[in-house]
């Protein structure tokens, strides 16, 4: 996952990746509020063969409506980040967080924190919670242009109707570079082994407590600054996508990284020739890849650099070519209107960015630009990702 300075509209990379699991008898949907960008860094090597397609959950059994659901009012800011409310403590204290598949830790600012960034966000008041328990374990997370240090604590955490008691989470005691971000903290949905704090992620804790019916969660991200974005736990609501879900095995269990077979424009392969790796990251706003390949992509669509972005004429957006991402034999087109956003001056810029990572193999990050188009299911039980055209 990565963070970007809100004022610069640039995402910043986390240097960590992976985690999540579940168990209960309802799909819980939490409308997300869209705000700015966040992303992450990743690591991952060792490619594996095909993952078993057996043991698949029958979607007819886990895809249903009329189940219990928890929803919150949505707020959409700039088509860049999707946020939801959670509460921590007894009585509950409310925070706005980003649900991030690129990290595994849950953290919010603490009232121990004296950094200017903390004073601009909601801070957890530990003395006001009767179920709070502090530990002496500390941790830190570094971002591309910011960092935090924190301490691990335990308390009751609620995601709508989902309740995790004695949930370990992070309380920041120092924050640098996060003064202008519009959310309070992060709720990681990656695998446990990349947790910076070493704490069990909330998804796994909910699974262990029997709070989620199946070990899956899914994202529907609304388009064009509309409301209606949803993250659902424990199942899949087929009303949010068209056709069938196409399942893609993870390269290995432990992070949301898959094989991608090519990236093409007008039937010509322009990147990922002969296969590469792709990380499906709800904490990243854009699509990121190696600088030479991204620069070539910008050139092919006629985008001109200006500052940290590449711009095109807004009148040409509907004529821009689709970028085709081929994954597991299926083409996933991203049309021009989907990869162009407007800045505060109304100028149109592309949502392709160079990744700060320099792995030994070609690596791409498929962020919210991609997930907006394709309803995405994260299946912890079978270590795979499901993709289908979003409604």
Would you kindly provide a written description of the structure presented here, covering whatever features stand out?
It comes from Bos indicus x Bos taurus (Hybrid cattle). Its main location: secreted. GO terms for molecular function: aspartic-type endopeptidase activity. Belongs to the peptidase A1 family. By secondary structure, the protein is mainly β. It has 6 helices and 29 strands. The chain has 2 domains: 71-212, Cathepsin D, subunit A, domain 1, CATH 2.40.70; 238-390, Beta Barrel (Cathepsin D, subunit A, domain 1). The strands form 6 sheets. A 6-stranded antiparallel beta sheet has the order 3-13-12-28-29-14. It has a 6-stranded mixed beta barrel with strand order 5-6-11-7-10-9. It has a 5-stranded mixed beta sheet with strand order 15-18-27-19-26.
